[in-house]
Design goal:
Blueprint: H1 6-11, H2 19-38, H3 49-56, H4 60-72, E1 76-78, E2 84-86, H5 91-115, H6 118-132, H7 143-158, H8 164-187, H9 194-206, H10 210-230
Antiparallel strand pairs: 1-2
Helix pairs in contact: 2-4, 5-8, 5-10, 6-7, 6-9, 7-8, 8-10, 9-10
Length: 239
């Protein structure tokens, strides 16, 4: 029998399970999630535990826990007794995602502009300045760093809404939006200026121009499906 490390035994639910197990599951979850977002695990690809546990250097129990979390995020789809597949990525799915995100995020922005105080304004200003440093220009090799700052900026825009459930839902939608942004970036430059889009949203929000900020945010969110359609992208593994 091959010798196994203590942490691997812990992760597989054997005696001694504790914080080490959680750490390995979290690491496997993040690695799998990144590989789905980046397209290294393709839409519709079967997630074979025996193959993936060697790829990610974790035990089968750890891997199943991580995949179950991804299924909760809807980045992975369960197939009854046949295991799991990476969720499909299609224009129809993106359009559905976009409609829901617009409905929630625009309302949250409006509420933030109305009720956000000085702390909200200061956090938004800081998030915008940090994002600006990473997207002039935006390059594929810088995407991961940019994504973190982009997420922070969009959260800062709406954190003044005062709704924890709204923030939770937007984070879930954001994980899927990131996947489609990654596809768009890999396809090559689109006819848009992302920094100018962010600047307009920021300036309108900070100056209290609610209607104009909402319109700018809507145009910004719609730009990714528009860019993919412009590039002729047809999606992957829709069935």
């Amino acid at each position: 029998m091959a010798k196994r490390s203590f942490l691997t035994l812990v992760a597989d639910g054997e005696p001694g399970a504790g914080d080490g197990s959680r750490t390995l599951i979290e690491r496997a979850y993040m690695q799998l999630r990144d590989d789905i977002v980046e397209g290294r695990l393709a839409p519709g690809e079967r997630m074979r535990v025996e193959h993936l546990k060697a790829r990610y250097d974790v035990g089968a129990g750890t891997l199943r826990e991580a995949i179950t979390r991804l299924a909760s995020d809807a980045l992975v789809v369960a197939e009854g007794q046949r295991g799991f597949r990476v969720a499909a990525a299609t224009l129809a799915d993106l359009e559905d995602l976009t409609r829901l995100r617009l409905h929630i995020e625009i309302d949250a922005l409006r509420q933030s502009i109305r009720h956000g105080g000085e702390a909200w304004r200061a956090a938004l200003q800081q998030a915008f300045e940090e994002l600006s440093s990473a997207e002039q220009p935006l390059r594929p090799e810088n995407r991961r760093c940019w994504e973190q700052l982009n997420t922070r900026f969009h959260e800062a825009l709406v954190e003044g809404c005062g709704s924890a459930w709204t923030m939770r839902l937007l984070r879930t939608l954001g994980r899927h939006s990131e996947r489609y942004r990654s596809i768009s970036i890999r396809l090559g430059p689109a006819p848009r200026d992302v920094h100018a889009e962010h600047r307009l949203i920021y300036e309108m929000a900070l100056s209290g121009q609610e209607a104009r900020a909402a319109l700018a945010l809507e145009a910004h969110i719609r730009a990714t499906p528009d860019a993919l359609a412009y590039a002729g992208w047809g999606g992957g593994a829709s069935a």
